[in-house]
Amino acid sequence: MATITPAAVVPVAGAYATSPSYSGTFIPTLWSAKLNAKFYAASVIADICNRNWEGEISNLGDKIIINNIPSMSITNYTIGTNLNYEVPTPSQIELLVDKAKYFGFNVNDVLEYQSKPDLMNMFSNDAAEQMRTRIDSTVLYNTFKGAASGNFGATAGVKSVAIDLGLDTAPVNLATADKTLNTILGMASVLDEQNVPDSDRWLIIDPATRMSLMNSKLAQAHLMGDPTSPVRNGRIGVIDRFTVYVSNQLPYAAAGTATAWYSGFGDESTITSAGTDLKRRAIIAGHKSAISFASQMAKTEQLRNPNDFGDLVRGLNIFGYKVTKPEALTFAMVQNS
Protein backbone atom coordinates (compact mmCIF):
# COMPACT_ATOMS: atom_id res chain seq x y z
CA MET A 1 0.00 0.00 0.00
CA ALA A 2 1.41 3.36 -1.00
CA THR A 3 2.35 5.79 1.73
CA ILE A 4 0.75 9.22 1.44
CA THR A 5 3.18 11.97 2.34
CA PRO A 6 1.57 15.23 3.57
CA ALA A 7 2.17 18.13 1.25
CA ALA A 8 4.77 20.60 2.44
CA VAL A 9 3.69 24.07 3.45
CA VAL A 10 4.87 26.50 0.75
CA PRO A 11 4.54 30.26 0.45
CA VAL A 12 1.90 31.63 -1.89
CA ALA A 13 3.30 33.89 -4.59
CA GLY A 14 2.29 35.63 -7.77
CA ALA A 15 -1.41 36.26 -8.40
CA TYR A 16 -2.23 34.48 -5.16
CA ALA A 17 -0.35 36.88 -2.89
CA THR A 18 -2.02 37.46 0.48
CA SER A 19 -2.34 40.56 2.58
CA PRO A 20 -0.57 40.62 4.94
CA SER A 21 2.06 38.58 3.17
CA TYR A 22 2.11 34.90 4.09
CA SER A 23 5.16 33.99 6.17
CA GLY A 24 5.22 30.32 5.22
CA THR A 25 4.27 29.24 8.77
CA PHE A 26 0.73 28.27 9.69
CA ILE A 27 -0.24 29.58 13.18
CA PRO A 28 -3.44 27.94 14.42
CA THR A 29 -5.75 29.55 16.98
CA LEU A 30 -6.41 27.27 19.93
CA TRP A 31 -9.07 27.74 22.57
CA SER A 32 -7.80 26.62 25.96
CA ALA A 33 -9.98 24.35 28.05
CA LYS A 34 -8.90 26.28 31.17
CA LEU A 35 -9.58 29.84 32.31
CA ASN A 36 -7.01 31.98 34.08
CA ALA A 37 -7.79 32.15 37.79
CA LYS A 38 -8.66 35.47 39.43
CA PHE A 39 -7.79 36.94 42.79
CA TYR A 40 -10.62 38.28 44.96
CA ALA A 41 -10.68 40.58 47.94
CA ALA A 42 -11.48 38.85 51.21
CA SER A 43 -15.02 39.15 52.58
CA VAL A 44 -15.44 39.74 56.32
CA ILE A 45 -19.00 41.01 56.91
CA ALA A 46 -20.49 37.53 57.24
CA ASP A 47 -18.09 36.81 60.12
CA ILE A 48 -18.21 40.04 62.10
CA CYS A 49 -21.92 40.95 61.98
CA ASN A 50 -24.93 39.72 63.87
CA ARG A 51 -27.06 37.89 61.27
CA ASN A 52 -29.84 36.56 63.52
CA TRP A 53 -32.61 38.04 61.37
CA GLU A 54 -31.31 37.09 57.93
CA GLY A 55 -33.86 34.33 57.39
CA GLU A 56 -36.76 36.75 57.87
CA ILE A 57 -36.29 38.80 54.69
CA SER A 58 -37.54 38.06 51.21
CA ASN A 59 -37.99 41.35 49.32
CA LEU A 60 -36.41 44.75 48.92
CA GLY A 61 -38.11 47.14 51.33
CA ASP A 62 -38.74 44.55 54.05
CA LYS A 63 -38.52 45.90 57.59
CA ILE A 64 -37.40 43.90 60.61
CA ILE A 65 -38.35 45.10 64.10
CA ILE A 66 -35.63 44.17 66.60
CA ASN A 67 -36.48 44.24 70.31
CA ASN A 68 -33.67 45.19 72.67
CA ILE A 69 -33.56 43.61 76.11
CA PRO A 70 -34.43 46.38 78.61
CA SER A 71 -32.18 47.25 81.56
CA MET A 72 -33.66 46.21 84.89
CA SER A 73 -33.45 48.57 87.86
CA ILE A 74 -31.68 47.49 91.04
CA THR A 75 -33.04 49.02 94.28
CA ASN A 76 -31.79 48.94 97.87
CA TYR A 77 -33.83 46.63 100.11
CA THR A 78 -35.10 47.60 103.56
CA ILE A 79 -36.93 45.12 105.78
CA GLY A 80 -40.65 45.86 106.03
CA THR A 81 -40.93 48.17 103.03
CA ASN A 82 -43.15 47.51 100.03
CA LEU A 83 -41.42 46.23 96.91
CA ASN A 84 -41.74 48.15 93.63
CA TYR A 85 -42.22 46.20 90.41
CA GLU A 86 -41.45 47.64 86.99
CA VAL A 87 -42.88 46.54 83.67
CA PRO A 88 -39.99 45.74 81.31
CA THR A 89 -40.54 47.47 77.97
CA PRO A 90 -38.09 46.53 75.23
CA SER A 91 -36.84 49.37 73.05
CA GLN A 92 -37.16 48.72 69.34
CA ILE A 93 -34.78 49.10 66.42
CA GLU A 94 -35.88 48.94 62.79
CA LEU A 95 -33.62 47.12 60.35
CA LEU A 96 -34.66 48.17 56.86
CA VAL A 97 -33.64 45.99 53.93
CA ASP A 98 -33.33 48.93 51.54
CA LYS A 99 -30.11 48.19 49.64
CA ALA A 100 -29.70 46.11 46.51
CA LYS A 101 -26.98 45.27 44.03
CA TYR A 102 -27.23 43.17 40.87
CA PHE A 103 -25.15 41.49 38.19
CA GLY A 104 -26.03 40.65 34.61
CA PHE A 105 -24.08 39.01 31.80
CA ASN A 106 -24.58 37.39 28.41
CA VAL A 107 -22.97 34.09 27.43
CA ASN A 108 -22.89 34.02 23.64
CA ASP A 109 -23.55 30.65 22.04
CA VAL A 110 -20.47 30.97 19.80
CA LEU A 111 -18.20 31.74 22.75
CA GLU A 112 -19.59 28.84 24.74
CA TYR A 113 -19.19 26.51 21.78
CA GLN A 114 -15.56 27.49 21.16
CA SER A 115 -14.43 27.01 24.78
CA LYS A 116 -14.84 23.86 26.83
CA PRO A 117 -15.25 25.34 30.36
CA ASP A 118 -18.70 25.81 31.86
CA LEU A 119 -18.77 29.56 31.31
CA MET A 120 -22.18 30.01 32.90
CA ASN A 121 -21.05 28.69 36.27
CA MET A 122 -17.65 30.37 36.10
CA PHE A 123 -19.12 33.79 35.39
CA SER A 124 -21.78 33.31 38.06
CA ASN A 125 -19.14 32.40 40.64
CA ASP A 126 -17.14 35.47 39.68
CA ALA A 127 -20.23 37.68 40.07
CA ALA A 128 -20.89 36.20 43.52
CA GLU A 129 -17.34 36.96 44.69
CA GLN A 130 -17.53 40.51 43.35
CA MET A 131 -20.91 40.96 45.04
CA ARG A 132 -19.53 39.93 48.42
CA THR A 133 -16.65 42.39 48.36
CA ARG A 134 -18.82 45.27 47.15
CA ILE A 135 -21.31 44.67 49.95
CA ASP A 136 -18.42 44.50 52.44
CA SER A 137 -17.22 47.90 51.29
CA THR A 138 -20.70 49.39 51.53
CA VAL A 139 -21.41 48.09 55.04
CA LEU A 140 -18.02 49.02 56.50
CA TYR A 141 -18.14 52.54 55.05
CA ASN A 142 -21.68 53.25 56.24
CA THR A 143 -21.39 51.83 59.76
CA PHE A 144 -17.92 52.56 61.14
CA LYS A 145 -18.80 56.08 62.33
CA GLY A 146 -21.87 54.74 64.12
CA ALA A 147 -19.75 53.93 67.17
CA ALA A 148 -20.74 55.49 70.50
CA SER A 149 -19.29 58.96 71.07
CA GLY A 150 -16.90 57.75 73.76
CA ASN A 151 -15.43 55.02 71.55
CA PHE A 152 -13.35 57.06 69.10
CA GLY A 153 -11.31 60.22 68.78
CA ALA A 154 -8.21 61.57 70.51
CA THR A 155 -9.79 61.21 73.98
CA ALA A 156 -11.63 57.91 73.68
CA GLY A 157 -12.77 55.82 76.63
CA VAL A 158 -16.00 56.51 78.52
CA LYS A 159 -14.15 56.30 81.84
CA SER A 160 -10.53 57.17 81.15
CA VAL A 161 -11.16 59.74 78.37
CA ALA A 162 -7.47 59.30 77.59
CA ILE A 163 -7.07 56.83 74.72
CA ASP A 164 -5.83 58.37 71.46
CA LEU A 165 -7.53 56.74 68.48
CA GLY A 166 -6.92 59.68 66.13
CA LEU A 167 -9.07 62.29 64.42
CA ASP A 168 -10.15 62.88 60.82
CA THR A 169 -7.58 65.63 60.44
CA ALA A 170 -5.00 64.18 62.83
CA PRO A 171 -4.79 60.39 62.44
CA VAL A 172 -2.56 58.26 64.64
CA ASN A 173 0.78 57.84 62.90
CA LEU A 174 1.65 54.14 62.81
CA ALA A 175 5.35 54.94 62.44
CA THR A 176 6.46 51.96 64.52
CA ALA A 177 5.22 48.48 65.29
CA ASP A 178 4.82 49.42 68.95
CA LYS A 179 2.59 52.36 67.99
CA THR A 180 0.42 50.06 65.91
CA LEU A 181 0.10 47.55 68.72
CA ASN A 182 -0.59 50.30 71.26
CA THR A 183 -3.45 51.60 69.08
CA ILE A 184 -5.01 48.14 68.89
CA LEU A 185 -4.66 47.67 72.65
CA GLY A 186 -6.32 51.07 73.08
CA MET A 187 -9.29 49.90 71.00
CA ALA A 188 -9.59 46.86 73.26
CA SER A 189 -9.54 49.12 76.32
CA VAL A 190 -12.32 51.26 74.84
CA LEU A 191 -14.53 48.18 74.58
CA ASP A 192 -13.53 47.11 78.09
CA GLU A 193 -14.74 50.44 79.45
CA GLN A 194 -18.12 49.76 77.83
CA ASN A 195 -18.36 46.30 79.47
CA VAL A 196 -18.30 44.59 76.07
CA PRO A 197 -17.81 40.79 76.46
CA ASP A 198 -14.37 39.38 75.70
CA SER A 199 -15.75 36.72 73.38
CA ASP A 200 -16.82 37.41 69.78
CA ARG A 201 -14.64 40.50 69.43
CA TRP A 202 -13.21 41.28 66.00
CA LEU A 203 -10.70 43.68 64.46
CA ILE A 204 -10.34 44.62 60.78
CA ILE A 205 -7.02 46.07 59.63
CA ASP A 206 -5.60 46.92 56.21
CA PRO A 207 -2.52 45.19 54.74
CA ALA A 208 -0.18 48.08 55.63
CA THR A 209 -1.28 47.99 59.28
CA ARG A 210 -0.83 44.21 59.33
CA MET A 211 2.73 44.60 58.06
CA SER A 212 3.49 47.07 60.85
CA LEU A 213 1.76 44.88 63.44
CA MET A 214 3.70 41.76 62.47
CA ASN A 215 6.96 43.60 63.18
CA SER A 216 5.97 43.79 66.84
CA LYS A 217 7.53 41.05 68.98
CA LEU A 218 4.49 41.00 71.23
CA ALA A 219 2.20 40.58 68.23
CA GLN A 220 4.33 37.75 66.87
CA ALA A 221 4.14 36.02 70.24
CA HIS A 222 0.35 36.31 70.56
CA LEU A 223 -0.88 36.29 66.95
CA MET A 224 -1.77 32.70 66.29
CA GLY A 225 -2.90 31.31 62.94
CA ASP A 226 -5.87 28.98 62.72
CA PRO A 227 -5.45 26.37 59.95
CA THR A 228 -9.15 25.50 60.04
CA SER A 229 -10.37 29.04 59.31
CA PRO A 230 -11.96 29.75 55.90
CA VAL A 231 -9.40 31.03 53.44
CA ARG A 232 -11.70 33.57 51.84
CA ASN A 233 -12.62 35.61 54.91
CA GLY A 234 -9.24 37.25 55.54
CA ARG A 235 -8.86 35.90 59.09
CA ILE A 236 -5.24 35.83 60.23
CA GLY A 237 -5.32 35.10 63.97
CA VAL A 238 -6.16 36.41 67.42
CA ILE A 239 -4.60 39.21 69.47
CA ASP A 240 -5.81 40.68 72.77
CA ARG A 241 -9.20 38.92 72.44
CA PHE A 242 -9.70 40.26 68.90
CA THR A 243 -10.14 37.87 66.00
CA VAL A 244 -8.07 39.74 63.42
CA TYR A 245 -9.05 40.11 59.77
CA VAL A 246 -7.23 41.83 56.92
CA SER A 247 -9.34 43.64 54.32
CA ASN A 248 -8.83 46.00 51.40
CA GLN A 249 -12.37 47.33 51.86
CA LEU A 250 -11.72 49.66 54.81
CA PRO A 251 -12.66 53.33 54.40
CA TYR A 252 -9.91 55.72 53.28
CA ALA A 253 -9.56 59.46 53.34
CA ALA A 254 -9.72 62.40 50.98
CA ALA A 255 -6.43 64.02 50.06
CA GLY A 256 -5.27 67.16 51.84
CA THR A 257 -7.06 68.40 54.93
CA ALA A 258 -10.60 67.41 53.88
CA THR A 259 -12.51 65.26 56.34
CA ALA A 260 -14.39 63.25 53.72
CA TRP A 261 -13.96 59.47 53.81
CA TYR A 262 -14.61 57.04 50.99
CA SER A 263 -15.51 53.37 50.76
CA GLY A 264 -12.97 50.81 49.67
CA PHE A 265 -14.41 50.99 46.15
CA GLY A 266 -14.97 54.74 46.22
CA ASP A 267 -18.55 54.39 44.99
CA GLU A 268 -20.41 55.32 48.18
CA SER A 269 -19.30 58.95 48.14
CA THR A 270 -18.35 61.39 45.41
CA ILE A 271 -14.59 61.60 45.09
CA THR A 272 -13.71 65.27 44.79
CA SER A 273 -11.05 66.82 42.60
CA ALA A 274 -8.77 66.75 45.63
CA GLY A 275 -8.34 63.04 45.02
CA THR A 276 -7.72 60.37 47.62
CA ASP A 277 -5.10 59.71 50.26
CA LEU A 278 -4.65 55.97 50.76
CA LYS A 279 -2.17 56.60 53.60
CA ARG A 280 -5.02 57.83 55.80
CA ARG A 281 -7.57 55.18 56.63
CA ALA A 282 -9.78 53.71 59.34
CA ILE A 283 -9.27 50.45 61.20
CA ILE A 284 -12.39 49.09 62.86
CA ALA A 285 -13.07 46.84 65.85
CA GLY A 286 -16.10 45.67 67.74
CA HIS A 287 -18.24 42.88 69.07
CA LYS A 288 -20.42 40.65 66.91
CA SER A 289 -23.53 42.29 68.37
CA ALA A 290 -22.49 45.77 67.20
CA ILE A 291 -23.76 45.56 63.60
CA SER A 292 -26.88 43.71 62.49
CA PHE A 293 -26.79 42.57 58.87
CA ALA A 294 -29.26 40.73 56.67
CA SER A 295 -28.62 39.71 53.07
CA GLN A 296 -30.25 37.41 50.56
CA MET A 297 -29.82 36.61 46.89
CA ALA A 298 -33.44 37.38 46.08
CA LYS A 299 -33.48 36.41 42.41
CA THR A 300 -31.25 34.57 39.97
CA GLU A 301 -32.65 34.21 36.47
CA GLN A 302 -31.50 32.73 33.17
CA LEU A 303 -33.25 33.53 29.89
CA ARG A 304 -32.51 33.52 26.20
CA ASN A 305 -31.16 36.74 24.74
CA PRO A 306 -33.95 38.13 22.50
CA ASN A 307 -31.45 40.15 20.45
CA ASP A 308 -28.64 37.65 19.96
CA PHE A 309 -27.76 33.95 20.18
CA GLY A 310 -26.95 33.33 23.79
CA ASP A 311 -28.21 33.20 27.37
CA LEU A 312 -28.70 36.12 29.74
CA VAL A 313 -28.03 35.60 33.44
CA ARG A 314 -28.91 38.13 36.12
CA GLY A 315 -28.96 38.13 39.88
CA LEU A 316 -30.35 40.51 42.53
CA ASN A 317 -28.95 40.65 46.06
CA ILE A 318 -30.95 42.55 48.68
CA PHE A 319 -29.44 43.54 52.02
CA GLY A 320 -29.73 45.84 54.99
CA TYR A 321 -27.53 46.77 57.94
CA LYS A 322 -27.64 48.86 61.08
CA VAL A 323 -25.44 49.63 64.07
CA THR A 324 -27.57 48.10 66.83
CA LYS A 325 -25.04 48.39 69.68
CA PRO A 326 -22.97 51.57 69.23
CA GLU A 327 -21.15 50.96 72.51
CA ALA A 328 -19.76 47.70 71.08
CA LEU A 329 -18.13 49.42 68.07
CA THR A 330 -14.90 51.43 67.87
CA PHE A 331 -12.56 52.74 65.21
CA ALA A 332 -9.20 54.47 64.89
CA MET A 333 -8.10 56.97 62.26
CA VAL A 334 -4.56 56.01 61.26
CA GLN A 335 -1.95 56.81 58.66
CA ASN A 336 1.44 55.66 57.40
CA SER A 337 4.42 57.79 58.35
The gyration radius over C-alpha positions equals: 28 Å
**Span between termini:** 82 Å
Number of helices: 6
* Secondary structure category: alpha+beta
User: What is the mean predicted local confidence, pLDDT?
Assistant: 79
> What is the number of E strands?
13
Write the layout of secondary structure elements.
Layout: H1 45-48, E1 63-68, E2 91-96, E3 99-108, H2 109-114, H3 119-143, E4 172-173, H4 177-192, E5 201-205, H5 207-214, H6 217-222, E6 235-239, E7 242-246, E8 252-254, E9 261-262, E10 276-287, E11 291-304, E12 310-323, E13 329-335
Parallel strand pairs: 4-13, 5-7
Antiparallel strand pairs: 1-2, 3-12, 5-10, 6-7, 8-9, 8-10, 10-13, 11-12
Describe this structure in words.
The chain has a domain of 223 residues. 19% of the residues lie in helices and 27% in strands. It has 337 residues and is α+β, with helices and mostly antiparallel strands. Strands 4, 5, 6, 7, 8, 9, 10 and 13 form an eight-stranded mixed beta sheet that branches. A three-stranded antiparallel beta sheet has the order 3-12-11. Strands 1-2 form a two-stranded antiparallel ribbon. The chain contains six helices and 13 strands.
Summarize, please.
With 337 residues, this protein is α+β, with helices and mostly antiparallel strands.
Keywords:
3-stranded antiparallel beta sheet, alpha+beta, single chain, 337 residues, globular, 6 helices, 8-stranded mixed beta sheet
